[in-house]
Every structure is written in structure tokens, then in C-alpha cells.
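W.,

You were right to be curious about this one. When I first looked at the sequence I had no strong expectations either way, so I just let the prediction run and decided to look at it fresh. Below is the sequence, 500 residues in total, followed by the output.
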Amino acid sequence: MASSLTKDSVRPDIGAEKTFFGHPRGLATLFMTEMWERFSYYGMRALLPLYLVAPSGLHMNAGTATAIYSVYVSLVYLLALPGGWVADRLLGPRRTVAVSGLIIMLGHLCLALPVSASFFVGLGLVAIGSGLLKANISTMVGHLYKGPDDARRDGGFTLFYIGINLGAFIAPLVIGTVGENVNWHFGFALAALGMALGLGQYLLGGRHLSEQSNVVPTPLTAEEKRSTLRKGLIWLVIAAVFYGVVGGTGHFTLNWALIPLTIIGLVIPIMVIARIRRDKDLDDSERSKVSAYIWFFVAAAVFWMIYDQGGSTLSIFADASAKNTIAGWNFPVSWYQSVNPVMIMALAPVFAWLWLWLNRRGKEPSTMVKFASGLVLVGASFFLFLAPLSIAEGGHKAAALWLVAIYFVQTVGELTLSPVGLSVTTKMAPKKYASQMMGVWFLAVTAGDSITALLSNPAIGGVNLDRMGFVGLEAVLAVVAGLAVWMYRKKVKAMMGSVN
């Protein structure tokens, strides 16, 4: 596919070099790698909550299934931090992505085995591999261009972004259909095949990648390697002994893993931001910006707490209480997960044009106003959710268009908050933490999903999150948070300094 999309360049500075839509050939390799990785990730993710609750699957209750799903998603984003460290200190981005692809493929193969223990090992492997890949493949896209002033750079990332959403769109339609209608484990095996295709073309197309991607920026010294290995083994032994005792005495349950991971997902983001905020190397301006950034971080955590329930709470509700039909034709529940990526592809250019159009007229909303809008919109999506919930409580099946409308509102909210959050993170990052701050942004997803896991886990008093009272409470929380961001926008803007 990549070769069919390349053409001879007409740029005089690169002569007859073949390109990918006018971009370096390596972009085709990374585009396809990311597309297949997203195909495997989102296809499996679309099946995950349905498999957990299905009588033909693990037949869990909705609360436990939501907690597992949320912990899994939180881990993917949490592990992006050590993923970046592995590339920076040990392997370099190119080798790290190759290793991550292999780990992801092995994880999906474990999911394809009809054994419960193998299933949870597979989830762990996919989370580890996804974290390693997420932190590095975007960096490799940047390596293809001649610095930040290369005129093709923004367009290259736009093409790469299309690859992400293309894989996410196709995955539920293919993997979801096979998993729901044929066999759950065949669906997971298709996810493994997708990652194998992505890994294969990555290795074959590696010659087109930048040599910079092979470089280990700050390699560990011999002493640092010994220290890191020693600390890692100590923690591994502690965990092995602890869980060996728990399992040996017959007390082990799934919550012995879920609850600690939930707590870690809440504590680590707080610790990381607090450490950066207290760093004595920061000057007053940088420390003020970090204080302002906390507002954005908390707002994003609230947003993702609700938004990511589109793959768990909404999906489980659709499976049990929605008419999953169009003009009398039934479709798999997992297909709802294709609604967001196709809307992203359709609406992202519209929003990019809108912000530019408003900016030229001096009317573009500030970052704070955009964040407030995202929170209000995600809250509005859950107010909208109350309608199908009410229909279901009346003993009827809710129409599929209710759910499509919810996903639409959430997508609009995502476009006002997520890209803006990525941008403001790069603008407000202290020089010392210029690279690490993107990992901090991902930790907002970790925190939000960890809160969902905490609220839904029945073992610690959690509830099914598709209850009207709880959905209404979450909707109010998001809207109130949005209004708070809007009300304090001037105070936060003062702390942001020159950043708009």
C-alpha cells in the first residue's frame, strides 16, 4: 500500500527522491505501522468490555468489567512515561518501536487463547507494548524533517493523524464483527494479525527512516544500568513474594491486582506534577506556568473520566438496552466505536479552519475558554445519555441514534480540548521538562480512567455507572468544572504569562 501512494518529488532540493504525498518515504512506513497498531488496539478495545460481560465470555458484572477496562486504558497512558525513558536511555526510538510491536502482537495472541489466565497476561502485554510505542513513534515522525521550520512538518503530522483514525475506524468493523458474530478469540487473533502486518512492514521499510531514530539520546552509564537492574529486581522480588503469599494462602482475587493499579494510576500523576512544581531549577515564570497547567490537567482528567466511558459504560449499555439496528438491519455493538474516529476525520479539518478563521478576526477563544467548552460538552453528552437510560428503565430498547448523538457531542468536545491540550502542554513546559511534559499530559488520561475504575469496582463499593443518578452526577460535575475554568480564566491567564 505504501509504495502505491508514493510518487516522484518535484521539489528541486530533493531531486528524484520518491516521496509519500510529497513527504519523506519514511512517513509511509510510520503511517502504516501506526494504522495497523491502532487497528489492533481499537479492535481489541471494542471487544474488551463486551467479552468481559458476555455469558460466552468471562460473564462478569458491568461494574467489574468497567473497572478492568478503565485500569487497562489508564495503564496504556501511564506506561508512555517509562516508554519514553526506554528510548531515551536504553534502545533509541527505532528499536523501542520494534520491540513494542512484538510485545503487542504476543499480547493479542495471549488474548486469542481461551484461557482466563492467558487473557489477563495478554492485556498486560498489550498495555506495555502500547505504552512503549505511543511515546516514540510520533517522535520518529518528527525526525523525518529538517527541524521545526521544515514547511512539510505540520502536513506530515496531519497525514500521520489520519493513519491513527483510519485504523481506529476500520478496526471495530472488522475485528468487532468477527469477535461478536463468529468467536471472541478469533477477533483477538485478528488484532494479533493486524499488529504482525504493521511490524512486518515497519521492519521492511526501516531503511527509509531517519538515522536520528537509531540514536540513544542520553544512554545509561554502566553504573546506572547496574543500579536500574538492581532496583528493578528488588521490586520484582517484592511483588513475587507478596503475590506468592496471597495466592498460596488462597486469598488472591482479581482485585488484588486491580485495586493497586487503580491507586498507582491516581498517585503517580499527582507525584509527577508535584515533583516538577517543587523543582528548584525552575525560575518563577516556569513555576507559575506549572501552577497554571494544573488547572488544565485536572480539567482534562475530568473530561477523560467521562469520555472514555464511551468504550465501557456506553458500550455495555448498548449491548443490553439499545436497538442496535439501522433501517431494520442489525449491526454489532462494537461498531459504535467506529463513530468517533470517522467523526474526528470529518470534523478535525473544520475545527482547524474555524480556529484560523476566528484568529484572523481577533475572535479566537482562549485556551481556557476552549477547555471550558470541552468540559461543558462532555457533560452535555451525559445529560443526553439520560434520555436512553430513561427509555431503558421504562422497559424499552433505546434507538441507536441516541448513542450516535452522544458520541457526536463527545467528539466535538474532544476537538475543543484534546488538540488544544497537546498544544498548550508544549507551550507551558519548563525547559528542563520540555520532552517529559507530553508524558505528563497523557497522565491526565491515566488519572481520569483510574477514577472511573475506582467508582465502578464493586469490591470497594463501586456501582454500575449506567444508573441515571450517577450519570446525572457526572454530567453536573463536568459542567460545573467547565464553568469553574471559565470563571477563573483571567486568574489562570495571569499565571500563564505570555502563553495564550
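Here's what jumped out at me. Residues 1-16 have pLDDT under 50 and may be disordered. And, maybe more interesting for your project: The first helix runs from residue 25 to 53.

Coffee later to discuss?

I.
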